Protein 1
Amino acid sequence: MHHRFGRIVLPVLVIAGLLVAPVLTSGAPRTSWDAKACGRVGGTLVFGQAQDAVTLDPADATDGFSVNNTSNAFDTLVRFAANGTQVEPGLAESWKVSSDELVWTFKLRRGVRFHDGTPLDAKAVEFSFQRQLDKKHPYHHGVFEYAEFTLESVKSIEAVGADSVRFTLKASNAPFLAMLAMFSNAVSSPAAIRKYGKDYFKHPTGTGPFKFVEWVQKDHVTYEANKDYWAGRPCVDRLIIRGIPDNTVRLLEMEKGGIQIMDQTNPPDYARIRRNKDLVLFTGPGLNVGYLAMNVEKEPFNDVRVRRAVNHSVNKPVLVRAFYEGIGQPAKNPMPPTIWGYNDEVKAYEYNPEKAKQLLAEAGYPNGITTELWWPNRARPYLTQPQKIAEALQQQLAKGGIRAKLVTFEWGTYLSKARNGEHPMAILGWTGDNGDPDNFLYVLLDADNAKKGTASNIAFYKSGALHDLLIRAQRTSDQARRTALYRQAQEVIHNDAPWVPLVHAGRVAAYRKQVQNFFPHPLDIRWFYRVWIEK
Amino acid sequence: MTRYVGRRLVETVPVVFGVLLVVFVIAHLTPGDPVLIALGEHATPEAVEQLRAELQLDDPLPVAFLKYLSHVLRGDLGRSIQNNERVTVELATRFPATIELSLAAMLIASVVGILTGVLAAVRQNSWFDGLSMFVALFGFSMPIFWLGIMLILLFAALLGWFPISGRLDYTVEIVRITNLHILDAMVTRNWTALGNALHHLVLPAITLSTVPLAIVARMTRSSLLEVLRQDYVRTARAKGLRDSRVVTRHALTNASIPVITVIGLNVGSLLSGAILTETIFAWPGVGRLVVDAIFARDYPIVQGTVFVIALVFVAVNLLVDVSYAYLDPRIRYG
């Protein structure tokens, strides 16, 4: 049921490159955020997504549908820029770091109030974080999945005076600031949490541009403009976020004007939207990777020649054209080129089935190999049409002498089995959380994450050389040094070939022409703060 | 009769217990882990382990079941793993949506189905008989999601007669008492909301009614044809009763027993059909609740919902059996 939302980075330096890339748009698309004042104030904006929110408590959210809600009603101490993943001041107007990079002190913006009228002060921030981290906290009501991940490096959090908050880390951690900007670290009103207890998820109270009004579960959430928002009021008076599960019905609603912006368009519907004069199809580069992982602990994939043979058998441009309507690009590295540190000098394995056969013969398989290709039976941002893509891969591999039987399971079972290493080859992918290379390379390919049962490195690839590079990169915040380390890391991965990196899918959004100043954020979170509607 | 109902009620206890046990075991033995699914690709090993412990998912199965059972007996169905909502609250808001939809569909299916069946039987082998039975077969074989989309395309998108999706416009205010919008609107004399709710109900109810409608029509026809051939009907005709009176008064009552059985049994197919219908029409009912919960391995929600659905089944079956006795005095229960 959960659509994992894509979280995508778009550093300024690559925008130029993207303009050259075939970015298909129609109507009046926005290629960058333009934070001018509203062209018109007022009206109701209705956004239709494939599912209603699961929870409105940002700290306890795990799915993109909930996050699209909470991100419009809450603020974080630091936030991502409107058009990328650079981190900028949010509720904290400035911050200082100690020379050993262990102590971070944030100075809060003055005069900010929660929607319930209580003031945002240092104690409130401390409370909001403590309830996530401290399992004995009286208001630790929830699972708080993302706290484990985003606040892993935090040793303690404390209020210093009325308007400063101090975070002490266990070890220096370069991605810390980006983690703080993530949705789960939004600040909630302690008064509201105390008032509603376990039902706080139905009574979200933040400081954000939109105030919560009503939630009809599995249907819609209503918000009104927070006219006292610290950064100025949002343009529309009301925001409605509806859940409409069927893709066709959601599109019909938008064509009829029942909703003005929709999420998750079917690739086969792109042409229909482009033809409609009332609609705009936005497309831009994505922050994800779809890949085929080979289980290097299993024969024959313990032999690098076999893994390279698989790489030579896959024709990626064909996949992108056929199943992504051309919106996306073939991958050669485990992370997308939209992230800093991308190594464009890595030379992709060329499509050459003959070479694949030859490599297999050298490895002792003159008649090719027989194996299984696992595929997830659920569309993902990086895998738009899973079954068709798996079937196409099966045919391509066969030409290189790799006869693969297709195997699939329901999503939950699939994840569980893949993490347990039961597959020989499996298709999976990743969407970035915060725009840091660490968020791709360390999570997906480091030996630390290759423990059977819980692995996120489902190639079970364990390289000492790579581990050394990735840990060094975590321990320094010098961006130039980190860039050099990550570029090297991509070389190592390319040579060992534990994956076939398949594709970086583009991001797509569709909306009615009256919608102005809407920029689908690279992290795939929908922010409506500065969106306005033309009469 | 009272004794009979009492005995049937006692008999339901092991059935309901069995359902609880089976659902619990199946839910917990399905591979996949709620924490892992919630975090998807993003679950770190530490997070999965720690959160499992926190959710007490590591209890041995019998222990976990006994804990669950003791809570259920106290009327506590637990809280959702996904968002902490009480299962009872979740059901109280969702079930009414499905009940409203299913009742409307059942009403359409029964009225239209019985009428069609009777007309087809009375005019056996006429063009109406042939056409209606063909349409019924068609309705029975048609995929619900396809029909739903077609109805939306024609009557909502093209002609604009009905809303495309949803249960109520977000602009319409309604006081939520029972969460049955139609009832709530009538009780509070909110005619705008009543009109809006009915307007939203038409297309999904028609969609959901097709399969039971087809079954009811065919069953009525065949059952009535059989009865019409019996001696007492001939006798009734022989003593000069009008044909319409023979059919409605004498034949239909006896022909209705299998029809009522079918209607009762179809409550089940309505609930499963409701899952698809609810998805197409973005209808916030229990079908979508349980499907979403299964995919998320939200055990408390799955268990609670199936438990309540089982109760509904038991109640409907009881009602069907009781109505036999009412319709046919020869049926006596010991």
Protein 2
Amino acid sequence: MIAENGKLLRVRDLRKFFPIWKRGVFARHVTGQVRAVDGVSFDIARGEVLGLVGESGCGKTTTGRVILRADTPTGGEILFTRSEQEEIDLAQLDRDQLQPVWQNIQLIFQDPYSSLNPRMTLEQIVSEPLRNYNVLEGSALRDRVAELLRLVGLRPEVMSRYPHAFSGGQRQRIGIARALALNPQLLICDEPVSALDVSIQAQILNLLKDLQQEFELTYLFISHDLSVVRHLCDRVAVMYVGKIVEISDTDELFNETQHPYTEALLASAPTPDPRVKRSNVRLQGEVADPSNPPGGCYFHPRCIHARDRCKTETPLLRETRPGHWSACHFAEELDLNSAATAPDVTA
Amino acid sequence: MSDLLLEVRDLHVSFYLTEGIVRAVSGVNLNLRPGKTLGVVGESGCGKSVTARAILNMVQRPGRIDQGEILWYGDPEHPGDIAQLDSRGPEIRDLRWGEIAMIFQEPMTSLSPVHSIGNQMIEAIRLHHNATEAEATEQSIEFLNRVGLSQPTRLLDAYRHELSGGMRQRVMIAMALTCSPRLLIADEPTTALDVTTQSQILDLMRDLQDEFGMAILFITHDLGVIAEMADDVAVMYLGKEVEIADVDTIFHQAAHPYTQALLRSIPRHDVVTERLESIVGNVPDPYNIPRGCAFHPRCNHYVPAQCGNPELVEVGRDQWALCARVHEILPASGERTNA
């Protein structure tokens, strides 16, 4: 297959369902399915940062894991451009075929405490990917580890120490150094700053941004935090119950919202300024159950703009403006931003 | 005579561990006014949760309140010192849940897994009020209704694992309200929740405060939540308050370098920032709190000769900062905030 121009990753109709098992007298049988990722499609261009936001249980982490092929997708295509001429579908590969591909896709984890082996030194941790793929050995390997540590803001002299000697922010730097070791083409960052203290978050966000600009890295940046996403991402995809409901350029998503769920998310996020009052757009109820979603638009039971059509007809993600996609029947009619940003005069 | 509900004076709490002594809280002063919300904000390890526990005299071994007064103006003429009470005695038990209720970050662990919701609520009501089982049941239903839970009668028979995170926190708030507390201590009550659920819970807490007139001590690391909820704010760093002021002053005329740096370092969803101004270094480990001003290794304004042992300085009206150089750095920071 010939790669499409400039796209590093194209995800098409990706699905991941988890079976719900029930134990019977003689055997277990499947009684239902959790539709964790339910028909997700998006592109990431080379050198782009795509944010994937949503609340817990919306399928954003599962999407990341399936793209990495830590999980096997139920269906869909994951088209990854490894080299200029070659686009491969990761969904079709088996473990042996995936092995070389994993050089090009790396993961940065949320929890810097559980993602580093406490029995390995920094040198062993950071050099592990290089040793696995026999890229370097001996003093060249050591030099590369030193270089990586410097890159993430740690002194190379610390490479003989163990992770317990480091704070959360420093551990996250170690995790980033490990992820960068093989010069990956795609980095999947799964909530990389959520576990860190406020004063440390900014350091790691700046580091991720600097590295991205210096090496023109491509990130799939998974987060629940809209302010972090706004700071770092070029484009943002918003997920709700396994589906993407809106995707567009970051500024446009925040200023010209085209989906009521995005509006509600923006309205719910507290602003660190007491003079800015939160709008009174409020979501009622709870996130829909992904094993038993409501009919029509999954969001309709909580949507303040819902009409009869939303209860029966599932909206498709469609381009409502150039480069701006929304899965709402009434995306063009609704004036969502005035509600999301207007000061609440009644409060 | 005082117009305060609770006053914490020079509170010191330490944990005596085999590895050493952790001075979790060293000299905290708080003033809570009736019907108002005091926000306590700080990073992990700053002592904000320990302060909350000390107020209920609930510091667990090997921790101990070393010194300080926690004055409760339940009867304004005769304030009582909670720190002096026997932590298992009858007086403190009457105060806990009777006058001061507490909700925690993780509502999962605050509810019993083996008792139904109704069971726990009715027990709490009957412990503190002379109520029959039927009256207590009726009250429980009323309060579950009040916190926006539909089908409260059915909920009474439910167990905690059947509820979502938001519902559990609502149940905790309902339980806290059953005893009509005059002070609600909320320790990171929305940190484990999603933003849309968080906004529902924050709304609920504000509505209930308007209705019942209780004071809230709101503890969080989230500056956005503080901006939204608090009337007054105390910023804590390594066991000390570094700045105290009303919420508008904290966010628009912060005096302490730590508060200023913290505000500049957070990304915002309503403003685009090219680059965040991060605070250098890490939060020091609690066994080795830096000498002198604890913030000095990370401070842009540190001058060795001057930053010895800072004391709380009154900077403006009701604004206090723990910084020896606060008067020198204030003008410069004023320009910065306006720029």
